[in-house]
Amino acid sequence: MAKKSIFNGFLCGNGWEDALCQELATIEPANKYYSPAPGLVVGGTSSSNLLFEPVFARQWLPDCVKVQGTSIADLVQALGKVVDPYLDQSPLPWTFKCCTPDLYTEDSTEYESLSGRPALLHEKFFERMGTYRRRALERYQEWDEINEKRPCLVIQVIMVATDRLWISVTQRFNTERGWLVPFLWHHSPGQVVHDPLAPCRSYYKLEEAWQQASVHPRKGDTCVDIGAAPGGWTWAALKRGAKVIAVDAANLKKHVENHPLCEHTLDNGYAFMPSKTVDWLFCDMIVKPMATIGLLDRWLEKKACRKFVVNVKFRGKQPASILAAIAELQIKHQIPELIVRHLYYDRNEITLIGGQLRQ
Ligand SMILES: C[S@@+](CC[C@H](N)C(=O)[O-])C[C@H]1O[C@@H](n2cnc3c(N)ncnc32)[C@H](O)[C@@H]1O
Asked: Is the C-beta atom of 102 inside 6 A of ligand 1?
């Protein structure tokens, strides 16, 4: 039988395939990357040399293989053939996720025809496990409950068409750089809980950013929110008992403006600088990307904030020069921790979460 080809797979937001290919090619010029379908990027042959966490990747599928089957029963059988040897040989706990490639794309209709099939495959796969692999089933852990610090087997199944799956089985472990291989987004889309008092959609971006970094403002923290109106980001911090200086010439929603911990100033966001170091800088101004990066540069120069969430907006879909400028900024200021992500709620923008995040 012909040996299955093994490749690196990635999920990204629909429409961001080229940005991800470009990003991967910049870091690993020896590998060729391309997008076979919306939300999917493939390339490279081995996972071992991926030493960075790409901004535009939502999920990494190392050592991926493709299988085919004309029915769900066929696909479950093909899936079993791939995963059984791992589950039989490894004593590790394991987790499993099955989805379509647009799991991380808001309002996607691209894979509508597959709707319901990943759930069916999931159900039938676990029925099969209950019949043929009961011991292994005892080690199963829900995706959201895997222990951050302990290794485990990660089984990722992407249904790319009614008759086709990508399957990645890999061991998850900590690297010296402190991130996990493969990186996994800790939340599923939609997990930012709806807040009826959120003044606007931007609120969800900041909540998602905090989820990604596992940190958010605490009661008593001081935050400066530049480009604050109508008040989504300010609201997210006020809710947690932080004091917020909201900088924007535009109006805030009344319940934000009147909040006792909110101080609204009409100052120009570029010129604003606090008299002493604050806990958090937030910036979500719609301005040119280098203007936002310049603002962050000045704040870091003056050590004016301990942590920051800064949203960098851009035109088009080719933000390579912006990523390069961010990398320079990190080196220049030796930012202790910096997470750069194209978030689920981000459109033509990326979000930087950084500083002394663990203090
Ligand atoms: C995308 S909105 C911010 C949304 C906000 N994060 C929220 O959650 O409600 C961008 C804001 O930046 C403000 N802005 C643009 N240029 C600014 C400047 N130079 N100084 C202060 N605010 C500015 C605009 O008035 C606008 O309200």
From this structure: no
